[in-house]
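User: Can you help me understand a structure? I only have the sequence.
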Amino acid sequence: MALIIFDYDGVLADTLDDLIHFGQEACNQLGVNHAVTKDDLSNLEVMSFATYGRACEVPDNLVDEFVNICLNLFAQKETPPAIFADLDEVIRHFSANHKIAVVTTNSSQNVHAFLTKHGLDSLVHAVYGVDTPGSKAQKISLARERFVENGEVVFMIGDALSDVRAAKEVGVTSIAVTWGHQSLETLLRGNPEHVVNSPYELIQAIER
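Assistant: Let's start by predicting it. Here is the structure, written out as tokens:
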């Protein structure tokens, strides 16, 4: 048995268009003259709504408002985001023999709504969102302390350089996915243990 931790945005949920749209809406509401593009996300050293706001030229005194606007826009969305193709089957496969958690800079409320929509909420043992205090590395450690009893392997699956670095910071195995928000070139700067190009490759990386 392993503990398998997923990031949310760009790994489970296809939120790129929403992130760009909501980031632009937040800038507009705050009077920030910036045209939001994918590049504002793809080059971030640390993937979070706060760093995203700064990349969009939001002044420091307005960053918290930027974060709240984006999170609220996600929460108000009539339907949760789409799941990347085949990931629902992969999660069901893992749930038979492993523990599953989500660590994200999105809100746990938004993640649970997404998981419920896709019939996966009962298969995920815990969600550590922006509403859980601490860094991503600290939240990975919280999940490990809660679910790992006999030295089982812990995997952190992410689409951002900061996910890889957070995994390494706390000594868990990092898996970088290439279908998310950051380029392979950016991900490789963190030297992940595994790089996968499709959800089914996660099974090979974790269970081989």
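Now, to help you interpret it: The longest strand covers residues 99-103. The chain has a mean pLDDT of 95. Let me know which part you'd like to focus on.
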